[in-house]
Design goal:
The protein is of the alpha+beta class. 31% of the residues lie in helices and 27% in strands. The N and C termini lie far apart (43 Å). Bound molecules: N-(5'-phosphopyridoxyl)-D-alanine (PDD). Residues 47, 194, 197-199, 219, 221-224, 258-261 line the site of N-(5'-phosphopyridoxyl)-D-alanine.
Amino acid sequence: MPDKKWSESRAPAGRIAYVNGRYLPHGQAGVHIEDRGLQLGDSIYEVTNVLDGVPIDEAAHLDRMERSLGELGIAMPMGRAALKLVMREMIARNRIRNGLLYLQVTRGAARRDHVPPKDGPRPTLIMTMRTQDMAGLASRMEKGIAVVTVPDQRWARCDIKTVQLLPNLMAKQAAKARGGAEAWLVDKDGFVTEGASTNAWIVAQNGDVATRDLSNAILAGVTRRIILEAASEAGVNKVVERKFTVAEALAAREAFISSATGAAVPVVVIDGQKIGDGAPGPLTRRIHKLYACKAGIKS
Ligand code: PDD
């Protein structure tokens, strides 16, 4: 039985989760004790923003889900049309118009063994949904956030969106302890890779709108890609995929982070130092709007 207090305190009444074909009250939903996601982190996830009841950038998130699973040799838990139906059913059953939909697929439940079973078990699919703190997001857009740089201590396949997030959460914790809302991870050569749960961007002194080029060192953010497309279509400065150092970020005109949870959120302080004049920059605001327009979000 789940801990009653936990479900009462954290799950608003009526919150529904999906687990392997069943819609259940959030506090009663669970997976097998030998689920490989639980025991080995053998699992990937996606987070999509839901606005006005519609999952944003849905196809791109499902493409990335399929890619992550493919890299690990895990089968898609169901066809795309069925997945989309479950997503819509979750939105309807949770009665959430604006929120975040979380999807996770594990390799499934099997007797514990590091080597994945040859004829794998049926993958586990779970979905949860929660409301977005829209007021908090509006305030971050208005005031900007502080980020703190920390060494990137993750593995060599950050392009796969796995649930193995310990280094990410340790980085976030460290950032929080130093007054930051996000951590920017720095590789051994002093270049920023990305945020703990976002992609990192600067508007450099020379006007470049820069974000790290795709490789195994970062996650190919869906929001990142759409911003790149929207910004270059609109002829925004020089939009480039390239590395930048912490020193270059500190000297930047503007900085921002991108993710499904917040599009382009201004960064106004890095390691305690103001970026530009310490207020959200005009290009960041413009890019946020361009993203919203491209993603079909009404503002
Ligand atoms: N994080 N980089 C990392 C390490 C991420 O975890 C995320 C997303 C991103 C941005 O990707 P996208 O634009 O597709 O959301 C970049 C999600 C939101 C999370 O972990 O909650």
